[in-house]
Batch of 2 targets.
Target 1
Amino acid sequence: MKRVTITDVAKEAHVSIKTVSNVINDSGSMRPETRQRVKQVIERLGYTINYSARSLKTGTTRIIGLAIMAFDQPWTAMYAGELIKAARRHGYSLVIDTYDDGGLSSIIDETYRVNADGWIFYADQPLADCKDILKQRYPVVLTGDSLAYGLVDSVTMPNVQPIYDITSTLIAEGVGCVGLIGAPDDLVAERRLDDVNALREGTRALRTQGYCRAFTDAGIEVNENVVIEGGRWDMNWGARGARHLLSVPAFRDARSRAVVCLNDALALGALHVFKEHGWNVPEDVQVSGFDDIEESRHCNPALTTVNSHLDQYADSAISMLIERIEGADSPVRVISTDFVIERRASTAF
Amino acid sequence: MKRVTITDVAKEAHVSIKTVSNVINDSGSMRPETRQRVKQVIERLGYTINYSARSLKTGTTRIIGLAIMAFDQPWTAMYAGELIKAARRHGYSLVIDTYDDGGLSSIIDETYRVNADGWIFYADQPLADCKDILKQRYPVVLTGDSLAYGLVDSVTMPNVQPIYDITSTLIAEGVGCVGLIGAPDDLVAERRLDDVNALREGTRALRTQGYCRAFTDAGIEVNENVVIEGGRWDMNWGARGARHLLSVPAFRDARSRAVVCLNDALALGALHVFKEHGWNVPEDVQVSGFDDIEESRHCNPALTTVNSHLDQYADSAISMLIERIEGADSPVRVISTDFVIERRASTAF
């Protein structure tokens, strides 16, 4: 299918290319009848502006790209939704590209084909080995819980503190056994949980740190048998984690129990398994999550969770990116949102 | 920030532009040392291929666009995820643009700025008033439950039959009152439920038809008081619909009850309210959904729902679009997936 060009329109309407251009840009002076006739020809031939050509000239599309992992968690859609709203408030559109196991670097080529003015990268894993992906020819804002190495602006959320607070509360209340679902897979597999305190980035590591520090500060040793890995951090892995805990005597036979889940999807999967097992929540086991996704208000019982103000998070990322797109040359910034613990029926505190 | 051009690279590396081009495309013959040196210069200067210029020449990006409504339902993310997987299997990437209350036509301009080879449009509402949006300069596949008017290929899913089957089963079992959550807002507001049989498109209308026909075929009149509108078809509206039903005597005081929800998000919201009200599911009220989202397997009790093979649905859309992108000129096609009812603990059948 051959694209209709501005030349085709000019020929068909018996006017100059300049006149067609003036009609398209609503500029120049001409008789209203002429303007009307050219518009009709544009409509009839189905002429559309060649944005590839235009963007070569103006270098702007008012489109922001988002590079994020696959849509396999409710949180991803929630984050994308908040970014879309924030971008629209600033007169920009958002397009989304996803990477899966290949990581951010696997889609850098694609980002150059999309014609966005700048990109928001999301990374929940450390970028140490590939921090060069932050050096692109377009402005970048990094979101997630990875270090930006002073290369680009970044937005993070509190991770250590909310999990520390929840775990400390459960310990202070004298809960017999407080388990965790969602720890970094390698640390659990290799029994290197002590190493978690050395890690300064990565969502899993930071949240697990909060849990471990609460025990240390209470003068209690962490029981590695009730610290369960997170896998894909989705409902299936939450269910799997809960079934695993049910097989651990220290947990199953405790006089009272709680599970700190590192995101809401994990908590929803765990809730389901505990109920199926015949346990009442929070009487037999208390469960908490992280993210405050919509489902956490509509599950049974409703889920105690961490709200880290995703709307502010998204708006900070969009605002910083647009400032860069428009030429801001200030030093790189790191913004962190604050948080609130939403207390609901799945816990007794 | 001035873009580094191929000329800059050639100058810096003391070679011709043709040689740089050969290095980029891994073609031509030259000494390995030269190739290596040019690569280093490309790296050092941060040269990246200008895809805007390139796409003017080749007219292809191997990117497919998806235009879909906002990410306010779990189903949207699930559909996007399946399309991403299907596109990748064919060597394409997917970028996503969303429309909200403005409808599909509000983002047509944006689609031209994204540089995709073709677009998948999703529409759950009739396009009658704006079917011209299907006439674009790029190939389009329409998905959702709207008519494509023979203009483009389209993919639909069965809507009437699964809801008919579920409702008929509940009626045949002698359930005292079978309500519905998710009907078209205007039909409920204006008490024009009879009109639903005249509608041949729109997800809400088609599924509501299935419900109404089951009653008609059983020789029973539909009780409009227990047919509740769907609003945004999310969990909040499901909860709202269930609270409404609790206030309707015909439902509340029936000897047995069921609620047919037109998607899973509505059903999850309703489940929560019934449990909060102290009703057991399915003993006091049976609940069914539609879509088989991940949450439907992990809620309490697990949800009986309709699986309409979203993977096939997504793969059909991607395959048809790619055929058009590659020049297929065959008559337009309509593909419909089949379905299976996943029977789980939220119903007694």
Note: The domain at 62-157+310-339 of chain B is CATH 3.40.50.2300 (Rossmann fold).
Target 2
Amino acid sequence: MPQYKPKNRLTPQTYIDGVLKGDRVILSRAITVIESNLETDKILAKEIIQAILPASGNSIRIGITGVPGVGKSTFIEAFGKHLINEGKKVAILSIDPSSQRSKGSILGDKTRMEELSHLENAYIRPSASGDTLGGVANKTAESMLLCEAAGYDVILIETVGVGQSETAVHGMTDFFLLLMLAGAGDELQGIKKGIMEMADMVVINKADGNNMASSEIARLQYQNALHIFPQSDSGWLPVVTKASSINHTGIDVVWEEVKKYKSLVVKNGYFESNRNNQKITWMYNNINDALKQLFYGSDVVKTKLSKLENAIVTSEISPVKAAEDIMSVFKDHFK
Amino acid sequence: MPQYKPKNRLTPQTYIDGVLKGDRVILSRAITVIESNLETDKILAKEIIQAILPASGNSIRIGITGVPGVGKSTFIEAFGKHLINEGKKVAILSIDPSSQRSKGSILGDKTRMEELSHLENAYIRPSASGDTLGGVANKTAESMLLCEAAGYDVILIETVGVGQSETAVHGMTDFFLLLMLAGAGDELQGIKKGIMEMADMVVINKADGNNMASSEIARLQYQNALHIFPQSDSGWLPVVTKASSINHTGIDVVWEEVKKYKSLVVKNGYFESNRNNQKITWMYNNINDALKQLFYGSDVVKTKLSKLENAIVTSEISPVKAAEDIMSVFKDHFK
């Protein structure tokens, strides 16, 4: 029986040529294929990716994160416009494993970066939807490759949700930017442990009006804190600055620091080694996800697991023995 | 063909009774069974663990880490003696995935805590040996259960190696103690990212002699840094103090803080929920290790993987497609 195939699909070569020529309409349609869960689209997507792969990679990839309310959209709008004024082509992608396309996140994304979305050299694409972080991250990372092949030379990848996706974004970008607000303490509740240590740069956002003094205090506090923490393999010392999207201050400094960073890591070899490691880790993450899917997706395992969790908590069985028991059930069933 | 069975093994019940009575000689011999890689010993070990499981858990488990040179052994000797003076029975275990029993680490451990090792209420056991961190961590965690069943009410688990094992120790303890030295900066190179944020307490060690002033500066710096970082689920704010094993100062404060911590987390329910989560995570870690062993241990996978890594780096194949290719090879082979 033939599988369902959407009518409005183009030939593989049309997608490939269109992306390589930088055609925005074709780029969008190619990303739609990548985001699709239909089997026929998955085959098509693989063919497109395989063909554009050699043309990908020529960009600086910047991850941007921060809790809701930190002013991410406004910052990205200001930063994006600055980059375009500098002659760059900017693509903005996002990762939000909790997003549901049908619930209006497209509309949300279009309206929240209004000015930027009308510029010729900006390409904005909301988060792909999906059930697993791994699935959503794959789609975003592959969309990033398409944008690069289409000539976008700065890719901004933002996390939209809270938690979880920061590590995924960190794993696919060259530079990781954390937006914070002044008034250390409460606003940190939303930042998960370990995120701070990933940051190549912390920007105290909304450093304007009544926040001027407290932003400078926050900047010094974070700067001191980050200097105490272990240095990254990149050899880069994270910087802390202030920015205001309203006053248009500090935006240019962010780009200057990104350029300094890139020049350092290209020189010391970290840029390339990190990219290679990211690609290999990407494969291993997919393998490990698939292995877990194979195991935890099987019915015999599901039934046994919840029983074992209870038995472990009540000390009826040791965790080591429980793991052995369920592995033998799985092996018997799989063979 | 019958398997090799060591001659000097006791009956299962002899181990079980001996451990539950707190017999140190039997305890040591039971741990030897747990650490053994012989199949007959593994079966025996499971029987012992299963029987003592209900008697385990009645201790406070303290993880202790810090880079080589920070004075861990001297600190643990001083801390252990303090606990024994307070009427506690103290067991000291360690995790060192790189340890090779034959290379003399037993001798090392016996001599480095000379005074403590002669005390009736102290039990010192060096790290189990093994090829994988998961394997070594299992053995240490099961030895910990035996020590608890034998009546030890404070378990100190130290990391001996650098890196890696901190997360394993954190995953099996209630309280995580990080030893540091004054002179922020260089000495941090050995501490991996993320470790600092696990700490419930940081002790600036060797706060004596010429280090007095710099230790106080370091204490303040870490205290400020830790306050900026996200709070733990336990509701506990990490404390930073100073200690000197030579001057016998600050050791009592560590124990006071551990007691404060325990009283807080018992009250707010974190102590129990964390223990339960740790047990369940322990099972999942074992399952995931076994799954990886099944996959990465297979010859077809090994051969294909190194080829794929090269193809990924040279952009001949996308990481997603590479993962799919190798999963289908594995599935075909396994069936």
Note: The CA atoms of residues 208 and 325 of chain B lie 60 Å apart.
